[in-house]
Each structure stands twice: as C-alpha cells, then as structure tokens.
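Read as chain and fold; for instance:
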Amino acid sequence: MPKIKVMDEILANKIAAGEVVERCSSVVKELVENSIDAESTEIKIELVDAGTKEVKVTDNGIGMEKEDAINCFGRHATSKIHDEEDLYHIETLGFRGEALASIASVSQVELRTSTGEVGTIVEMNGGVLKEVRNGDARKGTIMSIKNLFYNTPARLKHLKSLYTELANITDYVNKIALSHTNIKFTLINNGNVILNTDGTGNLLKTIKDVYGIQVAKKMVEVKGEDSDYEITGYMSLPEVHRSNRNGMITLVNGRVVRNTELNRVINDAYHSYKPDTRYPIVVFNITVDPSLVDVNIHPTKMDIKFSKLEELMTLIQHMIQNKLSRKTLIPHMIEEKKEEQKMESLKIKESITKPKYEEITINFDTNIYETEEDDISVNEALIVTEKKEEQANELLFSEDVSNKKERFPLMYPVGIVHGTYIICQNELGMYMIDQHAAKERCNYERYKKEMGNPSTNSIPLMFPITIELPANEFIVLKEHFDLLKKMKFDVEEFGVNSIIVKAHPVWLPKDHEEQAIRKIMELIVTCEKNFSIEKFNEKVATTLSCKMAIKANQFITMEEASALLEDLKNCDNPFHCPHGRPTTIFYSNYDIEKLFKRSGF
C-alpha cells in the first residue's frame, strides 16, 4: 500500500502560512502590497488590538470581477506573472500567488471588491469558501481579516505582545509609505491614527510624517548613478542617529528590502562622523533593471540579491562620503522649553498607541515630536521662523562647499574653560571646542596619512628599546615583522621572547615614542585573527590619536589654542573626533539673547 499521498489543499495552505504569515504585520504587508499593485492612490489600514482581532485594508484600486474575487484565494493564483520569462522581469510587489490562500487558511476573511459596477462579497472561514454574493459598486477593494490563527493555536500562542505586534506593523507601514510617497496611507489602531500621509509624492514630507519635524530638518537630499543603478533619497546629518539599524531604509524599484551588505556599507560611510554603536537614518530608493536583481528568494520577498553588488556598494559609499565632506556639521544649540519637554514626555507615554515615536537621538537639539505645526506644509515647517536665527543658520549651515577650509567657519579664540573647552566667537555667535576631541581628530588624520603613505625616513635610537613579551604574543609579533619594517621600524629578535627596536618612523609622537611602539605591537597581537592592513591602520590611528591627544583639564595657552584651530580647519572632517563625538558646538547670537531673555520669543 503506497505511503506517499498528495496533501489536502487546506492543509498545504496552512503549512505555507508558516512562512508567508509569520505575524500580524505579515498580513498587513501582503494586503497592502496587493493594494499598491492594484494602482491604488489611497490605502487605509484599520486594526483592532494591533491586528490580532482584525486587520482591515481599504483601497481605491482597480478592483476585481466576481470570478477573480473567488479565484484569488486559490493556491498559486496570481495576475502578476504568466510564464517563466516574467519571473526575470518582476515589476510588481506581489507575484507568488501564495499570500491570500495562506492568510485565508488561518483566519476568517471577508472580501468586498468592485471594478465600479456590481460588486462582489466573498466570505471564507479557515480556507473554506462560505458565501459569495453581490455587493455595492464602490470601486476598489476592502479586505477584512478577523481572528488570525484562530484554528492554529500553536501559532496564536506565539504572537508577541500587542505593543510588539503594533510596532512591527507600524514599522512596515512607515517604510512602505516612504517607498510610495504618491499614495496616501492611513494607519489606525483601535480608533487612534498612527500615520497619515498626504500622497503628494514629497519624500521629505513623508519623512516628517514618519520621524517628526526635527528629524526631517536634519535630512539632506542625495543623488547618485552609474551605468546600472540610480539612487535618490535622503540621509541624516551625523548628529541624528539611532540605537539600531531600523532607520536605514533601502528600497529597490519601490520595494522595501533588507540586505546586510548594503546596511554595512551605509553605516561604514559614516565612520568617524558618529559613534560606532549608533546608526544613521537614510531613505534610499534604488532604481535598477529588474533583470539585475532577484527578489524570489523568500516568500516575504524582502531579501534580495544583486547581480552587481560591489558596484552598488561603491556608488553608495562615494555618494554618502561626498555629501558629508561638503557640509558644515557643527551642531546648533537650541534652548529646551519646559512645554516641549512635557510634550515629549507625554508622547513617549502614548507610544503604546503611537509606536512610530521610537527612540531617536538628536544630540544637542531639543527632540520634539509631533505637534500642531505638523499640519503646516513641509516647505514651511522645515524653515526657522525667527528672522535672526534664520540669518545665522543661513550663513553657518551653507550649501555644499568644495573647499574644505570653507566648511569650518572662521572664528577667534577668546578663552578656555576648565582647561577643557576653547571658547571662540565670530559675528554669528559663540563656539565651544573640546580640545581633546579636536586634537584627537588632528592626530588621527595625520597618523592615517603617514601610515597610508609611509615616509622613507626613520629616526635611529641612541638607546634602542627592548620589549619582552609572553611566548604566544612574541610568536604572533614575529610573524608580522614585515609589517613593522614597512612602517619604517628597525626591529630584530633579541634573546628569548624579546625584540629590540633600533629605529622608528618620524611620525611617532615626540617624547612618547616607547609608549606608542608598545601600543602598536599590542594592536598587532590583538588583531592577529582575520588580520587586515586597512583595519590595523585604522586601529593604530584611532588608538594613538586618543592616547597622544591633549587631555581634559590640561591647560594650554591661547597661542596653542589658535594653532589647534588652524590644524582642525585643515582636517578632512574637522567636526568629529575619530569616535564620532563632536569637536565643536555653536550658540547663535539669537540663542544667547533668548537664554538671557533679551529677545522676545
């Protein structure tokens, strides 16, 4: 008697639902993507208890005829592809024909749809067709999914908390709204509006709707292209960053995708402009010939493969670094008002119903969330209304500049506070410079340059330095003698587990040569696993720049302060230390007047 049998279709759909319908956000994703493919210009997502009781998606798309309304719940039923060739030129968000069958198998579904004539209502329960009847003639589709996983208790049991489910849905809707700015999206949970975009096609305004006006004011437009890829979008200034990668949004031909390599290259492009443990906010829409990408990897269709990934990564890296290298990146201090602090606290408490207000750090600026001014158009909302402040910003935060010296404003030191902060001024206002961070940046760029293009000169030591090491460290260091010699160290083995240094490169910090040599050797030993000369040079430059910089509470003269400012101005990035901390912050004249109540506001 044969043991192999063909599965019942409902059972097969339930099994498929395990991949396609992982949680409530999966249902929202599939239904919204169908609405987008149906040429909708307005999509409303209504949730009851974060979608656990009901997900209702209403659109004004082209709708379906009666026969299609019934057939759409069949397994592998799709209008998106018709033959194998179509699989290599996918331009729609959906195409696999699995979603509706999978969703219907684990929920109670009501479909109302019409092409503008007599409508159709289809009801299904656990994948079984219950009723088909005529409906109203409203053009578009309304899909209601109730009691998700009611017939699969194991899946129902593993749903997360209502807040987590709602946060996942909101995260997805935020991203799809950013990828389709020409569609009006409304997201509602238990009657509370979480997101409401206007569908005007303005990406910056949609960023404001998603992240708030203070983030939108810190976003800069970017564009880049090569023979295969075209990239448009916005990236945050380095002072705006988050604790996770969720704000790094990449879209490919309007599809929200995730690619670890793209996230890595985006984050690496901000290296030394922000702390390594923080991540920028970017929204990049990548346009490419569909034949160069493969989205048919996973049923969620979020993972993607690129045919020319290296070229794309290089394009993104150059695009970001070019924009950062042409901006004045001095944070502008703004006084926090008590009313704004209260509003922020209130918004955080309401995050259970408005999870789009996830943690966002904007160093030195008041982090204001949604207020009444959000009703103003983005072009008005993103400008500073106070005349004096606007004039100061216009001069300080100028458009892209090609000369790196022009990026750093001309300023004059007038004092030093606590032996740590250099106070400077110009006609725009007051600047505070962290002398340790500033010197660290100058050292870092000098050491990196010297190590990348080592001088042929070295300094012989009158009294050679002998360094004794544990046996295991000595073995590793001995294997990298060639590296030390390329750096212009004259080193030899000297007795048991010891080396002697007879000469060192000219760029080692004066009077701290032995300390620097020991630190470099220590880094060689610790970097032995997966050793990379680029990473090693980076570690050496970062470590030495910090160890050899002026410390806090170390008093310097005004002449030394002026010399430090001049060195800082000549840096490629004078605004951040190698660890991403700011070197300089700014108070405009208007800010100071407000602090002392000398100006009305």
Observations:
- The longest strand covers residues 458-468.
- The chain is about 35% helix and 25% strand.
